[in-house]
Amino acid sequence: MTVPHSVIETPFAAEALETRARQRLRLEPPEHAFDPARIPERGDHQLAPMLSPDGALHRPAAVLVPVVAHRGDATVLLTRRASHLRDHSGQVAFPGGKIDAKDASPVAAALREAREEIGLASERVRPLGYLDAYLTSTGFRVLPVLAIVEAGTALTINPNEVDVAFEVPLAFLMDPANHQRHAREWKGSLRHYYAMPYGEHYIWGATAGMLRNMYERLYAE
Protein backbone atom coordinates (compact mmCIF):
# COMPACT_ATOMS: atom_id res chain seq x y z
CA MET A 1 0.00 0.00 0.00
CA THR A 2 1.30 3.47 -0.85
CA VAL A 3 1.54 5.84 2.11
CA PRO A 4 0.35 9.37 1.24
CA HIS A 5 3.30 11.73 0.98
CA SER A 6 1.67 14.14 3.45
CA VAL A 7 1.96 11.63 6.29
CA ILE A 8 5.53 10.43 5.59
CA GLU A 9 7.72 11.73 8.40
CA THR A 10 11.15 12.91 7.31
CA PRO A 11 14.11 13.58 9.63
CA PHE A 12 13.38 17.27 9.16
CA ALA A 13 9.76 17.26 10.31
CA ALA A 14 9.19 19.03 13.61
CA GLU A 15 8.07 15.80 15.28
CA ALA A 16 11.24 13.96 14.23
CA LEU A 17 13.42 16.86 15.36
CA GLU A 18 11.70 16.91 18.73
CA THR A 19 12.31 13.17 19.18
CA ARG A 20 16.01 13.62 18.46
CA ALA A 21 16.25 16.63 20.76
CA ARG A 22 14.55 14.85 23.67
CA GLN A 23 17.08 12.02 23.32
CA ARG A 24 20.23 14.11 22.90
CA LEU A 25 19.67 17.49 24.58
CA ARG A 26 18.78 18.60 28.09
CA LEU A 27 16.70 21.49 29.42
CA GLU A 28 19.26 22.16 32.14
CA PRO A 29 22.13 24.47 31.17
CA PRO A 30 25.34 22.55 30.40
CA GLU A 31 27.68 22.22 33.38
CA HIS A 32 30.31 24.98 33.48
CA ALA A 33 28.54 26.82 30.64
CA PHE A 34 29.50 30.19 32.12
CA ASP A 35 32.59 29.19 34.10
CA PRO A 36 35.24 31.82 33.23
CA ALA A 37 37.98 29.28 33.98
CA ARG A 38 36.84 27.10 31.09
CA ILE A 39 36.98 28.05 27.42
CA PRO A 40 34.02 26.52 25.53
CA GLU A 41 35.01 24.00 22.87
CA ARG A 42 32.49 25.55 20.48
CA GLY A 43 33.00 29.00 19.12
CA ASP A 44 34.46 31.23 16.45
CA HIS A 45 37.90 30.16 17.66
CA GLN A 46 37.36 26.62 16.37
CA LEU A 47 38.24 27.70 12.84
CA ALA A 48 40.12 30.87 13.86
CA PRO A 49 42.17 30.26 17.05
CA MET A 50 43.27 33.89 17.24
CA LEU A 51 39.69 34.84 18.24
CA SER A 52 39.68 33.18 21.68
CA PRO A 53 39.74 35.91 24.37
CA ASP A 54 40.46 35.48 28.07
CA GLY A 55 37.64 33.59 29.77
CA ALA A 56 37.19 36.33 32.36
CA LEU A 57 35.95 38.66 29.62
CA HIS A 58 33.12 36.42 28.46
CA ARG A 59 29.63 37.91 28.79
CA PRO A 60 26.74 35.44 29.31
CA ALA A 61 24.13 35.48 26.55
CA ALA A 62 21.37 33.27 25.18
CA VAL A 63 19.72 32.92 21.79
CA LEU A 64 16.60 31.13 20.64
CA VAL A 65 16.95 28.64 17.77
CA PRO A 66 13.29 28.69 16.68
CA VAL A 67 12.17 25.77 14.51
CA VAL A 68 8.77 26.46 12.95
CA ALA A 69 6.55 23.37 12.94
CA HIS A 70 5.12 23.53 9.44
CA ARG A 71 3.32 20.48 8.13
CA GLY A 72 6.01 18.42 6.43
CA ASP A 73 9.55 19.71 6.77
CA ALA A 74 10.17 22.39 9.38
CA THR A 75 12.00 25.69 8.94
CA VAL A 76 14.36 27.73 11.10
CA LEU A 77 13.36 31.31 11.89
CA LEU A 78 16.22 33.80 11.57
CA THR A 79 16.56 37.57 11.64
CA ARG A 80 18.67 40.16 9.89
CA ARG A 81 19.93 42.73 12.36
CA ALA A 82 18.97 46.36 11.76
CA SER A 83 21.33 48.14 9.39
CA HIS A 84 21.76 51.14 11.72
CA LEU A 85 23.11 49.16 14.68
CA ARG A 86 26.69 49.82 15.69
CA ASP A 87 27.60 46.14 16.21
CA HIS A 88 26.95 43.40 13.64
CA SER A 89 24.59 45.55 11.59
CA GLY A 90 22.89 43.73 8.74
CA GLN A 91 24.09 40.31 9.86
CA VAL A 92 21.90 37.21 10.05
CA ALA A 93 21.29 36.16 13.65
CA PHE A 94 19.06 34.24 16.01
CA PRO A 95 16.78 36.23 18.31
CA GLY A 96 18.67 36.72 21.55
CA GLY A 97 21.13 38.75 23.54
CA LYS A 98 22.86 39.14 26.90
CA ILE A 99 21.39 37.50 29.98
CA ASP A 100 20.10 40.08 32.47
CA ALA A 101 20.09 39.68 36.24
CA LYS A 102 16.26 39.58 36.18
CA ASP A 103 16.22 36.55 33.82
CA ALA A 104 15.37 33.34 35.68
CA SER A 105 17.37 31.20 33.25
CA PRO A 106 19.04 31.29 29.82
CA VAL A 107 15.73 30.01 28.38
CA ALA A 108 13.93 32.96 29.97
CA ALA A 109 16.50 35.36 28.52
CA ALA A 110 16.18 33.89 25.02
CA LEU A 111 12.38 34.06 25.15
CA ARG A 112 12.46 37.65 26.45
CA GLU A 113 14.81 38.76 23.69
CA ALA A 114 12.72 37.00 21.02
CA ARG A 115 9.63 38.79 22.32
CA GLU A 116 11.42 42.15 22.31
CA GLU A 117 13.04 41.74 18.87
CA ILE A 118 10.35 40.07 16.78
CA GLY A 119 7.25 39.94 18.98
CA LEU A 120 7.38 36.16 19.32
CA ALA A 121 4.85 35.15 22.00
CA SER A 122 6.42 32.82 24.57
CA GLU A 123 3.25 30.72 24.83
CA ARG A 124 3.72 29.73 21.17
CA VAL A 125 7.22 28.40 21.88
CA ARG A 126 8.16 24.98 23.31
CA PRO A 127 11.83 24.77 24.40
CA LEU A 128 13.49 21.42 23.68
CA GLY A 129 16.96 21.79 25.16
CA TYR A 130 20.31 23.52 25.05
CA LEU A 131 22.97 23.18 22.41
CA ASP A 132 26.61 23.66 23.44
CA ALA A 133 27.86 26.99 24.77
CA TYR A 134 29.35 29.03 21.93
CA LEU A 135 32.07 31.66 22.31
CA THR A 136 31.83 34.55 19.86
CA SER A 137 34.70 36.67 18.62
CA THR A 138 33.15 39.66 20.44
CA GLY A 139 33.44 37.93 23.82
CA PHE A 140 29.90 36.65 24.35
CA ARG A 141 29.46 33.15 25.76
CA VAL A 142 26.17 32.15 24.16
CA LEU A 143 23.82 29.34 25.13
CA PRO A 144 21.55 28.44 22.17
CA VAL A 145 18.08 27.21 23.15
CA LEU A 146 16.50 24.91 20.57
CA ALA A 147 12.72 25.31 20.49
CA ILE A 148 9.61 24.48 18.47
CA VAL A 149 7.44 27.40 17.33
CA GLU A 150 3.82 26.83 16.31
CA ALA A 151 3.23 27.37 12.60
CA GLY A 152 1.27 30.51 11.82
CA THR A 153 2.60 32.44 14.80
CA ALA A 154 2.34 36.17 14.15
CA LEU A 155 5.45 38.32 14.54
CA THR A 156 5.88 42.03 15.21
CA ILE A 157 9.31 43.21 14.07
CA ASN A 158 11.06 45.79 16.24
CA PRO A 159 12.75 48.06 13.65
CA ASN A 160 15.16 49.35 16.29
CA GLU A 161 16.78 45.91 16.38
CA VAL A 162 15.73 43.89 13.33
CA ASP A 163 15.26 44.68 9.64
CA VAL A 164 13.49 41.44 8.70
CA ALA A 165 12.66 37.93 9.95
CA PHE A 166 12.76 35.04 7.48
CA GLU A 167 12.68 31.24 7.40
CA VAL A 168 15.13 28.73 5.96
CA PRO A 169 14.30 25.03 5.48
CA LEU A 170 15.70 22.89 8.28
CA ALA A 171 16.71 20.33 5.66
CA PHE A 172 18.98 22.90 3.97
CA LEU A 173 20.65 23.98 7.20
CA MET A 174 21.19 20.42 8.44
CA ASP A 175 22.78 19.27 5.16
CA PRO A 176 26.59 19.26 5.66
CA ALA A 177 27.00 19.87 1.93
CA ASN A 178 25.75 23.41 2.63
CA HIS A 179 28.24 24.02 5.45
CA GLN A 180 30.84 25.98 3.55
CA ARG A 181 34.13 27.23 4.95
CA HIS A 182 34.92 30.80 3.98
CA ALA A 183 37.75 33.13 4.96
CA ARG A 184 38.48 36.84 5.06
CA GLU A 185 41.31 39.00 6.33
CA TRP A 186 40.84 40.17 9.91
CA LYS A 187 43.41 42.35 11.69
CA GLY A 188 46.21 41.12 9.49
CA SER A 189 45.30 37.42 9.74
CA LEU A 190 43.12 35.16 7.65
CA ARG A 191 39.97 34.32 9.62
CA HIS A 192 38.14 31.12 8.67
CA TYR A 193 34.45 30.58 9.49
CA TYR A 194 31.37 28.59 8.52
CA ALA A 195 28.95 30.07 5.99
CA MET A 196 25.59 28.81 4.71
CA PRO A 197 24.46 31.20 1.94
CA TYR A 198 20.74 30.87 1.22
CA GLY A 199 19.28 33.01 -1.54
CA GLU A 200 19.83 36.66 -0.65
CA HIS A 201 20.79 35.78 2.93
CA TYR A 202 24.43 35.25 3.92
CA ILE A 203 24.39 33.12 7.08
CA TRP A 204 27.88 33.07 8.55
CA GLY A 205 30.06 33.37 11.64
CA ALA A 206 28.53 32.58 15.02
CA THR A 207 25.06 31.87 13.60
CA ALA A 208 26.42 29.37 11.09
CA GLY A 209 28.69 27.91 13.78
CA MET A 210 25.74 27.28 16.10
CA LEU A 211 23.80 25.68 13.26
CA ARG A 212 26.80 23.46 12.58
CA ASN A 213 26.78 22.46 16.26
CA MET A 214 23.06 21.69 15.97
CA TYR A 215 23.81 19.41 13.03
CA GLU A 216 26.61 17.65 14.92
CA ARG A 217 24.46 17.12 18.03
CA LEU A 218 21.27 15.99 16.27
CA TYR A 219 21.99 14.68 12.79
CA ALA A 220 25.61 13.63 12.38
CA GLU A 221 26.17 9.91 12.78
TrEMBL record:
It comes from the Bacteria. One of its GO terms (biological process) is nucleoside diphosphate metabolic process. Gene3D superfamilies: Nucleoside Triphosphate Pyrophosphohydrolase. Keywords: Hydrolase, Magnesium, Manganese, Metal-binding. One of its GO terms (molecular function) is coenzyme A diphosphatase activity. The keyword GTP-binding does not apply. SUPFAM superfamilies: Nudix. Residues 58-194 form the Nudix hydrolase domain. Its cofactor is Mn(2+); Mg(2+). Belongs to the Nudix hydrolase family. PCD1 subfamily. PANTHER family: MITOCHONDRIAL COENZYME A DIPHOSPHATASE NUDT8, NUDIX HYDROLASE. This is CoA pyrophosphatase. It comes from Alsobacter sp. KACC 23698.
